[in-house]
Amino acid sequence: MFPHQIQDIVYATGECLNYPIDYIAASLCFVLSVGIGNTHVAKLKEGWTERAILYTALIGRPGVNKSHPLSFAFHPLFEHDAKNGVAFKKEIKEYEQLLYLSRKEREEQGISELPNEPVLKKFVVSDITPESLAFIHENNKRGICLYTDELASWFKNFNRYTKGSEEQFWLSLYNGKPIILDRRGSKNSVSVKNSFIGVIGTIQHGVLREMAKGERNQNGFLDRILFVLPNNLEKQYWSDHQLSRHVIPTWNNLMQKLINQEYLTDDNGDIIPVELYFQEDARKRLYDWQRENTDQCNREINETLMGIYSKLEIYAIRFCLILQVARWLCGEASKDSIDLVSVEGAIKLVGYYQKTARKVQQIVASSATLEQLPSDKQRLYNALPSDFSTAEGIQVASQFSISADSFKRMLSDFKDGLLDNYRHGRYRKLL
Question: Torsion-angle region of residue 425: left (phi > 0), alpha (psi -120 to 50) or beta?
């Protein structure tokens, strides 16, 4: 579904750096969405446009290489922010020096009025309050993203100040709603007409239950997250293959081309986005798929999954926009409109995230199953390695004075949503 240059990056980093394909592909897709920001929107019909806002979670146990693909994908944004940071320090120093001058001294230097105070423009933020996030976004109305290596720190802080307020804040940002913060004095007020704040981070299987606590599995919060969960993910041996020297510059150049795109602004400094309409055959295909998805929703007896499938219809339009711009970056398409190829790719992406959503719901249910077990079985389960043989499990059980026969009987309890008996005599924990 991705253009060939990006496919090459995915496969090369997978072969040489052991990046799981799901992780690196999703990370590249997310960074592309941030690069697009508010500059382009997908227009399905009059009155309905979608921005490329994504909420993404990379799921996996420690040591399965979740963080490195993210760092690779984010490198162009980190470099851009670092250069802006250096320039900002220089500008603010010069500005402060001007403040110390008298009016006469400034006039002698040919400066009739003080320039506007410099502002720091950046794409990436981490571990930040909604208020600070809003101020940073006002300085970069193109769009920003929250990047956190441990996504648990994001949602665990939702109620740190006012119960439920931060969670509602993020629910509204998913739809690109305006941000208005009124504080005492106009200087402390913030107004962002079209918000664009994406979220991405990593999370472990066992923390998913924590994410689903409270109302998050009912109020649509969990529905808005794209879960990236590779099949049969295991820790890999180091690869002897060397990464071709063109791979990193190719990705950096693509993102730099996207970042350098010029855009129009209105009198208030808000970006006027380029609207990408759907070509007729692309629009028809998307509508046909939406009818199929609607039928699937109506057949689904699990209300949580029904909500997820519904939210993925919105993501389908956003994926169309991202793929169209990505193909334009790589010289495989124009970005005057969204074509059938991008729509087909978006539908495939939605199919992937439907599968991972079902897996996540199974993991959340498994967590509930574990909590219902007697405490001795919970302790044994937590003590087992993530991947083990029957013999290895018996050895761990002996440390709890549990016999081999008793352990084998416990395996039957654990198989119900807690263990994957993926090979004869081999088990993989699902939490």
Answer: left
Surface-to-core class of residue 20, CB atoms within 10 Å of its CB (0-12 exposed, 13-18 middle, 19+ buried): buried
Same domain, 38 and 102: yes
Residue 361 lies in a domain: no
In Å, what is the CA distance from 75 to each residue of 68, 238, 254, 255?
11, 22, 12, 10
Question: Domain of 423: which CATH number?
Answer: 1.10.10
pLDDT(308) > 70? yes
Rounded to whole angstroms, the Cα distance separating 303 from 356 reads 16
Q: Which of 248, 205, 254 is nearest to 359 (CA)?
A: 205
Domain at 143, CATH number: 3.40.50
Identify whether the C-beta of residue 21 lies closer than 8 Å to the C-beta of residue 229. Answer: no
Range of the domain at 410: 373-429
Please name every residue paired with 141 in a beta bridge, in sequence order, or none if there are none. none
Do residues 241 and 6 make contact, with C-beta atoms less than 8 angstroms apart?
no
Neighbours of 105 (CB within 10 A): 11
Please count the residues of the chain. Answer: 431
Give me the residues paired with residue 271 across strands. 265
* pLDDT above 60 for 319: yes
C-alpha pair distances (Å), 16 with each of 11, 25, 233? 9, 15, 17
pTM, rounded to two decimals = 0.84
Express each pLDDT in 343-395 by its tens digit: 999 999 999 999 999 888 877 776 666 677 777 788 888 888 888 889 998 89
Quick one: which of 351, 323, 56, 293 has its CA closest to 174? Answer: 56
Residue type, 81: D
111: DSSP letter: -
pLDDT, tens digit (0-9, with 9 covering 90-100), for 246-274: 999 999 999 999 999 999 999 888 999 99
User: Which neighbouring-strand residues pair with 277?
Assistant: 43, 337
Q: Say if residues 101 and 93 touch (Cβ distance below 8 Å).
A: no
Residue 337 bridge partners (DSSP) = 277
Within a domain: residue 366? no
Q: Is residue 365 part of a domain?
A: no
Determine contact, residues 174/222, Cβ cutoff 8 Å: no
Q: What is the DSSP letter of 140?
A: -
Tokens found for residue 239: 């690869």
Rounded to whole angstroms, what are the CA distances from 83 to 35, 80, 87, 259, 263? 16, 5, 6, 13, 21
Please report, in angstroms and rounded to a whole number, the separation of the first and last CA atoms in the chain. Answer: 31
Q: How far apart are CA 397 and CA 304, in angstroms?
A: 36
Distances (CA, A) of 257 to 124, 325, 345, 383: 18, 11, 22, 50
